[in-house]
Design brief:
By secondary structure, the protein is α+β, with helices and mostly antiparallel strands. It has 63 helices and 47 strands. The chain has a 7-stranded antiparallel β-sheet, covered by helices on one side. It has a 7-stranded antiparallel β-sheet with strand order 44-43-42-41-47-46-45, with helices on one face. Helix 21 runs parallel beside helix 23 and helix 26 runs antiparallel to helix 28. The radius of gyration is 53 Å and the shape is elongated. It starts with a strand and ends with a helix.
Length: 1942
């Protein structure tokens, strides 16, 4: 029972005391005057009576009522019901007020004086019960008695009010059985019995219904709730939702639960109180435990800036003062808005709960919404009455909490039962089982104060239960099944709402309120009422005393607490599994884990090793981890399991992998189950020394988390306490049967409930004994845990501070033996915060920090679980000893573990180095991680070679990884990946998780332009500063200060002696350079090329002339504006003649002489009839620094002109001749593009008259003269009779073959159109067409060409199908797609520029962008072809993309990232297509007799590519070893391609980036090589070798930007190799020569060139192939381009093989893996193999082996003369030369001919044209070619045998081997059966008859007459004779049948 009202107070306006002009309230009277003991009087009531302040008003206000809530110091809430009315003041009082005002008259000017003022007065009831309506009625009654002057004395009414006593909650006081006893629950639907329980019996009525009267004729009924645990809300919740809406209230709800500050605003005080009450009601079963002030007085507004959370209501009057609150959520009840500040983040309910809650709420509040779209909505769809709706809303929230907290009781740990239950909640386990570890909302709620209160209130297992307990225990299953169906949810909600309503209104029918209200007259009349009287306190006190005495005398009402055991509901695990949220692991994976553990304990280590990777992958899943702990548990006997080293290693590895994915919370309890195991598994290290698993699994965050240890401790304590009581109880009580009859173990909570029930029945001694037992149990566990924690927190090597570990400075021995022997230092370092207890670990050592951590833990858990102070002190003294003792044990273990053989880590393998290559940094242990290439990872079949473990070595030349695969099955292979440092293009840091170790490691990703990528992760033993110094060294080596720092220069020196170039003055006349020039020249004077004429130096005899030339040069130089061009000293002494002889040699004079481009002769004896001469104008590099010293220019151009012309061109690179066509004598010139200023004037119409030539004109005139000189030096021009007449032009120029050139004319037009492109032609697309026009289908029936046409244009067109007589391509047009000429868009003539009849003498290939504005003149003798050139930037970007396509950094499944898509995006093939296209065009032009000048960009990139390709295609000499070398030396090196700059070889050029212009050229050569494999002396490997070493900086050949730079450094004329170090080759050419002599690695066995052959490759993208140089990799021994390494590795391999040979049978088979083995090495082609075998045999026989080349040449010559060959030869050995034929696209079209060595390819319709014509000397007809084609197919020899044939006139009969070939329709004859040279062919199409013949003179004897027969053809008669008549008949029949078949 409780008092309805504790105090009655009268509060009035304080007239005497006004502070700062504001009125104050004061308590006039209070009853009782003495405080109750159980409820002290709350202070400050007067503030709350007028929250907005006490003020006088001129008009009487209506009476008001509201309830304020005050919270006292004990967190008890006092409800203050304030009834306020207004009283008029009389004159003396007014005077007081005026006087008060007068004091303040200074501040306030004239105050309006009102004749009448009214002051507020409040009647206040203070109570601990919240009965708003009852208080409203009572106070209203008192006011009515006063106002209406009723007869009842006020003292009586007030006395009755204060003595009224009501029950706190309903329920029987007679029946001892509990209301909701859950023991008696029938197994029927839950709501029925609960309702039955809640229906009160007749004897209960008087207590849950309390009728009260205050003695003024009033009567009212107070209904007390049946269960006071449930809040009473009236209709406040529904009201709140109506005011704010669903979403807003949900925001407030979540904000209150997650402890945010909430402020309500309203102009109504009662609404504020109701809103706050409503918010608290929906939070049930959680109770709000922070500041709660529904009505805050204005004077206390500073409370709003408190840092703690609150729920406060404030009148809207103070709205402006709430504006600056930054972290408060403001809910405006009147406006219906909720304002959330930007800085506040509210965590919302997890989905799908949020959505389902919103749906349910809208169905309650707005039931019409669902049917609003229906045509016939139901009739009555009004929402429930407000009070019912209120309960429905609360039911929704109850349902929500039941879902949020379902299964919470299974996560309670009971750590003490007596004297009071102490209960802890295991948050991590709860979140883990619910799979909500990531959920922000639930995490915050569980961490909040409200939930802590919830656990302490609802945790105890034996107590009174309520609706929520029932819901969580018995309705979870129903909620789970219905959650998806809103209507079923609504039914459940309605049931719950009914119960809530029943609780609040047990008797809704009873509503007897008889309370008088003041009469209308008394309210309305404004007469001078009597003020509220001063009450007689004695009278009131008497009432109170009387009631108290009565209570004391009456027997105490004892209301029995209805306690029972709280049911736990279904366990969590099942629920989650059904939801499918658990990470499912297949049974197969679990099987793998079990098998692996079995193998380990059965000591089957190899089997375990094989399963290990799969196990480590499986352990990512939770179930597999649980399975592992269960399995390991089975192998522990008496808390101990001793293992051997390898077993221990594997178990530790699995434990680490399992712990790796555990969060620091350990929500799945994995670390908890492993904790006992890590102290059980151990290995013996030595006498009495044992190492436990815990010393190797410390590197995990979970061990440093205090919450983890607490949860573990409480869990263990609970188990022990449970065991304690299980022992004391009888055995038969151990288990209970659950509903289904299964035996289940009794839970700790059930046990505790039972003990709590029995507690009052125990004697004092028994009680004390139990308390002590429990306390000592907790104490012993605390000691145990102090030990456990020291095990896992103290590192194995305690000598070092653990913080050092995080910087990676751990000593190497301790790391390298077992798995991880260092401690958790790394993970601890991050968590040295207050959370983990290591606050200032820097200053303290490891032991102290561990002691502090354990002390904190012990303090916390012991205080919570009630350990006595004595015990706690004992613990604190014990802990340092425990730690110290453990450290001593660990020292011994650490010492012993160092002696262990390093099991885990493979031995570091040393790489083989080149001579002169030195290590810069020794091997650092790393893991090589797989990148985006699938081959090595086993994805494409084959073994997973990567990831591999080994070391990375940095040498002066390369970066090398060498190691072994991590996969146990591939462990014996050695993986090598390396690339030259100079080729490094990008380096970035990455972090890598290694699958084996599960640790995130720092790593590097290094990309090289040799198409190699290294992703490495540093091993944990590599300190981070070591890794950093590795990066720095790498960077220093990659970008040396000067080119002399590159490997090519430093080779052989110590790696440290990298030269720093001396800085020179800018304008110093470089005498040193000329000295260098001379010195080097002297040294190399003896070295002369074979083709050079010895007389060359003699041409410099005439000294005076030489001097005069020099003088002339000096004059022309002085005109130059740019002084920086004066670089070389121009005072070269005439005695230094050798210098020039070297320049002569270097400037490729041999080639110029070979081409007939003039000799270096004196001006006196210079033969005038030679069109060109070799100029020495640039001998000192004054004209153009990037050109060679000697240049070819027209004969009649003096050197002085050159100085002037060169200024018009960029970089002074003026046009010079570099090649001449041997047949047409057309020349190829190269230059840079023109400077912008000269362009327009240069291309203005030359016929326009110019009055006075200006300076600009004169240079452009000189240019014109220069071009004219070139044109006139062409024989076709000088011979032509008329300058521009067509007849003259054709007759003289086309003297080689008129028809051929006519045929060729349109072809060039087509080519040009292709090169220039068309608007429709998009260069980026992969299309076959050149112009996007439809290609014409070319007819194949070609008219027979007359014999004259044999001289048809020479050259080869590559053919896609070249089989036999049919070819799909027209001979003249090839694949040039002779599209119909599309008319011009403007309707003009078609392509007048290119398709006119007249050809220009000189075509200038220029850049489109440069040539804008130039007019074209049809009478000019030169013509400009503008083309679009690929920019250097384009090449650079394209190459980057190509590298990423060929060597992706990571695997991807995106379709947009496939290899072919990335290749297309890179546009590399498009660039190749463009370069090849332009080159083929130039070849065509030169072949038709026009000269071509290539004048693009700066003349050193695209120009060089085009010019080189043109020469390669046109001149077979350049397709030999010597020729190709000369071509590269001449066009690339001498003509100044900027190798250093484009290759970013030094620090200076680092920013420009790598631009592989030369690689692009090599790729083009590779494309041509693929289409014409028989035209090149060198193989594809030769091109790859050059491509690799062009980027590697191993040789000096491709360093520096020009000859000038090379002379300056003194490397141009150095000797071939250093005498001191003969191993080191400085030039790549010498190296290739040397290698080529030893072995045929660069030689192409299919080489069989045709004379004067011009190649015309297909250039469409569809015809190009990706170069396998970009894609192939050899992991066995790295890139195959450094031959010394290969030979060393082979010799090493042989040595090891010899050692290993123990008589076991050796297998001849060898498994070849792609991407691992070098295929050409393990599977050499037949010829290489034979040559090798030959050498080996010679070596065995002790003969001196001859060079392979000699052997090969010998074989080729004997091949023709030898006749004793097999009867049916297959491909002759000269053809099937290499296994490379497999990728030959045109291998079908290869025709062989053995008259000359080897083979020639005749493709396409060229063959057809000559098929029927008579053979012309020097070019055999196709039919004879075809007859040589030996095929293995049997039908090619339909019938064969020996026949005698009669020779020509006077010649005898000879036996010949005849072959009848039906396929080719011919009869061939040979000298003998073995012969493969056909002696003659009889075409069967020419045979007219086969008749029986007669023997003639000289016929063979002894042959029957019938054996003779005659074969008549259209040309002659053949007399033949068989050996016998039957044979002759057979021959005749066979020939006859062949004829009829045809």
């Amino acid at each position: 029972m409780a008092r309805l009202a504790d105090y009655f107070v009268v509060v009035g306006y304080d007239l005497d005391n006004r502070v700062e002009g504001e009125g104050q309230g004061r308590i006039l009277q209070r009853f009782p005057e003495k405080d109750w003991e159980d409820s002290p009087f709350p202070q400050g009531i007067e503030l709350f009576c007028q929250p907005s302040g006490w003020q006088l008003v001129p008009e009487r206000q209506p009476a008001s009522f509201f309830v304020a809530v005050l919270t006292d110091i004990n967190s008890e809430r006092h409800y203050c019901a304030c009834f306020t009315f207004w009283e008029g003041l009389d004159s003396p009082q007014l005077k007081k007020v005026d006087a008060g005002d007068a004091d303040e008259a200074d501040e306030e000017p004239a105050v309006v004086q009102h004749s009448k003022l009214f002051a507020p007065k409040s009647l206040v009831v203070v109570s601990r019960l919240d009965y708003t309506e009852a208080f409203r009625n009572c106070l209203g009654l008192i006011y009515t008695v006063h106002v209406d002057g009723l007869s009842t004395p006020l003292e009586t009414v007030i006395g009755n009010l204060l003595t009224c006593v009501i029950p706190v909650a309903g329920g029987s006081q007679i029946d001892e059985s509990p209301v909701c006893s859950l023991d008696k629950v029938p197994q029927s639907p839950a709501c029925d019995w609960l309702l039955a329980c809640l229906q009160p019996g007749p004897e209960e009525r008087e207590d849950s219904l309390r009728t009260i009267t205050l003695g003024a004729g009033d009567r009212q009924v107070i209904q007390t709730p049946i269960n006071d645990a449930l809040p009473v809300s009236g209709s406040s919740v529904a009201q709140l939702f109506r005011q704010l809406g669903i979403v807003n209230v949900l925001y407030l709800f979540c904000a209150a639960l997650t402890e945010h500050k909430i402020l309500f605003l309203s102009s109504s005080y009662q609404r504020l109180t109701d809103a706050c009450r409503g918010l608290l009601a929906i939070m049930f079963p959680l109770k709000y435990s922070f500041t709660y002030v529904p009505i805050l007085p204005g004077k206390l507004l500073e409370v709003l800036s408190t840092p703690t959370p609150f729920i406060i209501g404030v009148n809207s009057f103070f709205r402006s003062e709430t504006q600056e609150l930054l972290d408060v959520i403001i809910a405006d009840l009147d406006g219906g808005t909720v304002t959330i500040p930007e800085c506040v983040h509210i965590s919302l309910l997890p989905e799908p709960l949020l959505q389902q809650t919103q749906t349910a709420l809208s169905m309650v509040l707005d039931p019409e919404l669902e049917f609003s779209d229906q045509a016939f909505p139901p009739q009555s769809m009004n929402p429930s009455a407000l009070k019912i709706q209120d309960k429905e809303i609360r039911a929704v929230f109850l349902w929500l909490f039941a879902r949020l907290f379902q299964g919470y009781r299974w996560c309670l740990h009971i750590i003490r039962i007596h004297p009071e239950p102490v209960i802890r909640f295991h948050k991590a386990a709860f979140l883990g089982q619910r799979s909500l570890t990531e959920d922000d909302f639930l995490m915050k709620v569980l961490d909040g104060m409200a939930f802590a209160g919830f656990v302490s209130e609802r945790g105890p297992p034996y107590r009174a239960t309520d609706l929520f307990d029932d819901l969580v225990a018995n309705h979870v299953e129903r909620i789970r099944q219905e959650e998806a169906c809103p209507h079923k949810v609504m039914n459940h909600v309605k049931e719950l709402a009914e119960q809530l309503f029943k609780n609040e209104n047990p008797y809704p029918a009873v509503a007897m309120h008889k309370v008088q209200r003041p009469s209308e007259t008394s309210q309305s009349t404004d007469q001078s009422r009597t003020p509220f009287p001063v009450l007689d306190d004695v009278a009131v006190q008497l009432f109170i005393d009387h009631a108290v005495a009565k209570l004391k005398s009456s027997p105490p009402v004892v209301k029995a607490e209805l306690k029972s055991m709280v049911p736990s509901g279904p366990p969590l695990g099942d629920i989650v599994d059904r939801n499918g949220n658990v990470m499912a692991n297949s049974a197969r994976r679990l099987e793998v884990v079990r098998n692996c553990i079995t193998y380990i304990f059965d000591n089957k280590m190899l089997e375990a090793k094989k399963l290990m990777p799969a196990v480590l992958r499986a352990l990512k899943g939770r179930t597999a981890r649980v399975c592992l702990t269960q399995e390991l548990n089975q192998h522990v006997l008496q808390n101990r399991a001793v293992l051997d080293d390898q077993q221990f290693d594997y178990i530790v590895r699995m434990m680490n992998c399992t712990l790796q994915d555990c969060s620091h919370m350990d929500e799945h309890g994995i670390a908890a189950t492993l904790l006992p195991l890590v102290t059980a598994f151990c290995r013996k290290l030595g006498a009495g020394i044992t190492q436990f698993a815990y010393s190797c699994v410390q590197e995990h965050m979970v061990w440093t988390t205090m919450q983890f240890w607490e949860a573990m401790f409480y869990s263990d304590v609970q188990n022990h306490i449970k065991a304690l009581y299980m022992e004391t109880d009888d055995g038969n009580q151990q288990d209970q049967q659950d509903g289904s009859g299964n035996i289940r173990e009794i839970s700790a909570l059930e046990l505790a409930a039972e003990q709590n029930r029995l507690w009052p029945t125990l004697s004092k001694e028994m009680q004390m004994e139990r308390v002590q037992k429990e306390e000592s149990t907790v104490f012993s566990q605390a000691i145990h845990y102090a030990n456990r924690m020291s095990y896992l927190l103290l590192p194995l090597d305690t000598s070092k501070n653990r913080l050092l570990r995080s910087s990676g400075l751990g000593d190497v021995e301790s790391v390298s033996n077992s798995y991880v022997t260092n401690s958790i230092a790394g993970s601890m370092a991050e968590s040295y915060d207050t959370e983990s207890g290591f606050e200032d670990a820097e200053s303290s050592d490891v032991a102290n920090s561990v002691v502090r951590f354990i002390n904190r833990f012990v303090d916390k858990v012991c205080n919570e679980s009630g350990v006595t102070n004595e015990h706690l002190k004992a613990l604190h003294t014990m802990i340092p000893d425990i730690v110290q003792m453990h450290i001593e044990t660990l020292d011994a273990v650490h010492r012993e573990s160092k002696r262990l053989p390093p099991i885990q880590k493979p031995k570091l393998l040393r790489p083989t180095l080149l001579p002169g290559e030195e290590l810069v940094m020794d091997g650092m242990r790393v893991h090589l991680i797989p990148d985006g290439r699938d081959e090595a990872t086993g994805q494409m079949g084959g073994p997973p070679l990567l990831p591999a473990e080994g070391a990375i070595f940095l040498t002066t030349y390369r970066l090398i990884f060498k190691g072994t695969p991590s996969d146990a099955l591939v462990g014996e292979q050695i993986v090598t990946r390396s690339f030259p440092i100079a080729s490094l293009t990008k380096e970035k840091r990455i972090s890598v998780t290694l699958t084996m170790d599960q640790f995130v490691q720092e790593g590097l990703q290094l990309r090289s332009c040799t198409f190699q990528l290294m992703k490495i992760a540093f091993d944990e033993e590599v300190a981070s500063d070591l890794a950093e110094s590795f990066r720095k060294h790498l960077h220093k080596l990659r970008f040396p200060q000067h080119v002399q720092g590159t490997f090519a220069f430093t080779v052989g020196q110590s790696g440290k002696l990298v030269l720093e170039p001396k800085t020179k003055d800018k304008n110093q006349s470089l005498k040193t350079l000329s000295k260098n020039l001379v010195k080097n020249a002297k040294r190399t004077i003896s070295r002369q090329y074979v083709g050079r004429k010895k007389e060359v130096p003699a041409t410099w005899e005439n000294r005076s002339n030489f001097q005069s030339e020099l003088d002339e040069d000096e004059i022309s130089v002085s005109e130059e504006v740019d002084q920086s061009a004066l670089t070389l000293s121009s005072t070269i002494r005439s005695s230094d003649r050798q210098t020039m002889s070297n320049v002569v040699e270097r400037a490729c004079c041999r080639d110029y002489q070979r081409l007939g481009l003039g000799t270096l002769s004196n001006s006196l004896t210079r033969s005038k009839n030679e069109p060109f001469r070799i100029s020495t104008a640039n001998r000192m590099y004054t004209v153009c620094r990037s050109y060679p010293g000697l240049l070819i220019i027209p004969q009649n151009i003096p050197d002085s002109t050159i100085h002037r012309i060169c200024r018009c061109y960029r970089q002074n690179r003026f046009p010079v001749v570099c090649w001449r066509h041997s047949r047409t004598k057309a020349v190829l010139l190269r230059s840079a593009g023109l400077h912008a200023k000269g362009v327009v004037s240069f291309f203005k119409s030359p016929n326009a008259p110019t009055a006075v030539p200006s300076q600009a004109d004169s240079t452009s005139l000189e240019q014109e003269k220069y071009l004219q000189a070139i044109i006139s030096s062409m024989p076709s021009y000088s011979e032509s009779t008329g300058r521009n007449t067509l007849s003259g032009f054709t007759s003289t120029h086309m003297n080689t073959s008129e028809s051929s050139d006519k045929l060729r004319q349109p072809k060039i037009g087509d080519l040009m159109k292709q090169v220039l492109g068309n608007k429709e032609d998009v260069p980026g697309t992969f299309s076959r067409g050149a112009l996007g026009q439809k290609a014409k289908v070319i007819s194949l029936s070609q008219p027979k060409v007359s014999g004259k046409a044999r001289n048809s244009p020479r050259g080869k067109w590559g053919s896609i199908r070249g089989s036999g007589r049919l070819s799909a391509y027209n001979p003249d047009i090839g694949t040039r797609l002779a599209g119909k000429e599309s008319p011009q868009p403007n309707g003009g003539p078609n392509d007048p520029l290119f398709l006119r009849q007249q050809k220009a003498y000189l075509y200038i290939i220029g850049d489109k962008a440069q040539l804008k504005g130039g007019k074209q003149d049809s009478f000019q003798q030169w013509e400009v072809i503008p083309i679009e050139v690929c920019d250097v930037r384009q090449v650079k970007n394209s190459f980057k993309k190509l590298m990423k396509a060929c060597v992706p950094s990571s695997q991807t499944t995106e379709p947009n990232m496939s290899f072919l898509r990335l290749l297309e995006d890179s546009e590399w093939m498009t660039l190749l297509h463009r370069v090849l296209q332009v080159s083929v065009l130039v070849v065509e032009l030169l072949d038709t007799g026009s000269s071509v000048m290539v004048s693009l960009e700066d003349g050193w990139d695209v120009t060089t590519q085009v010019v080189s390709l043109v020469q390669l295609l046109s001149d077979p000499y350049y397709r030999t070893f010597d020729g190709f070398r000369l071509l590269v030396e001449k066009e690339w090196l001498s003509f100044g391609h900027r190798f250093s700059h484009r290759g970013a070889q030094t620090l200076g050029s680092q920013s420009s980036g790598f631009t592989p212009v030369f690689l692009q050229f090599l790729d083009c050569v590779h494309q041509i090589h693929l289409q014409f494999p028989m035209e090149f002396e060198f193989s594809q490997y030769y091109l790859k070798f050059l491509a690799y070493h062009y980027m590697s900086n191993r040789f000096r050949t491709f360093l520096l930007d020009s000859d000038y730079d090379r002379i300056e450094l003194g490397v141009l004329y150095e000797e071939k190799s250093d005498r001191r170090n003969p191993q080191v080759c400085k030039s790549v050419w010498d190296y290739i020569d040397r290698l080529n002599k030893k072995a045929p690695v660069f030689y192409n066995y299919m080489y069989s060139p045709e004379d004067e052959e011009v190649l015309r490759p297909y250039t469409f993208i569809s015809n190009l192939k990706v170069w396998d140089f970009y894609l192939e990799e050899t992991l066995s021994d790295g890139p195959p381009y450094d031959w010394e390494l290969r030979s060393r590795q082979e010799s090493l391999a042989e040595e090891t093989a010899e050692k290993a040979d123990t008589g076991a049978p050796k297998s001849q088979r060898h498994i070849v893996w792609p991407c691992y083995d070098n295929l050409s090495k393990v599977m050499p082609d037949a010829i290489t193999k034979l040559l090798q075998d030959l050498q080996n045999l010679e070596a065995e026989l002790g003969q001196t082996s001859e060079k392979w080349k000699d052997t090969w040449d010998k074989i080729k010559t004997t091949q023709r003369t030898e006749t004793k060959l097999e009867s049916k030869p297959s491909f002759s050995s000269s053809l099937l030369m290499s296994s490379n034929l497999s990728h030959q696209r045109r291998s079908q079209g290869v025709c062989l001919q053995d008259s000359r060595v080897g083979s020639s390819i005749k493709l396409g319709l060229d063959c057809e044209a000559s098929a029927t014509s008579t053979p012309v000397a020097g070019r055999p007809s196709t039919s004879t070619l075809y007859s040589q084609f030996q095929s293995t197919e049997s039908e090619n020899r339909s019938f064969e045998g020996i026949l005698y044939k009669r020779g020509a006139l006077l010649k005898p009969w000879k036996p010949r081997w005849f072959v009848l070939d039906k396929t080719k329709h011919e009869l061939r004859y040979y000298d003998s059966r073995q012969d493969k040279d056909c002696k003659g062919v009889i075409e069967l199409s020419d045979v007219e008859s086969v008749t029986v013949g007669t023997p003639t003179m000289g016929a063979p004897k002894n042959v029957e007459e019938k054996a003779f027969f005659d074969l008549k053809t259209s040309k002659r008669m053949y007399n033949l004779c068989a050996q016998e008549s039957s044979n002759a008949q057979l021959w005749m029949d066979s020939i006859q049948s062949s004829l009829s078949d045809a």
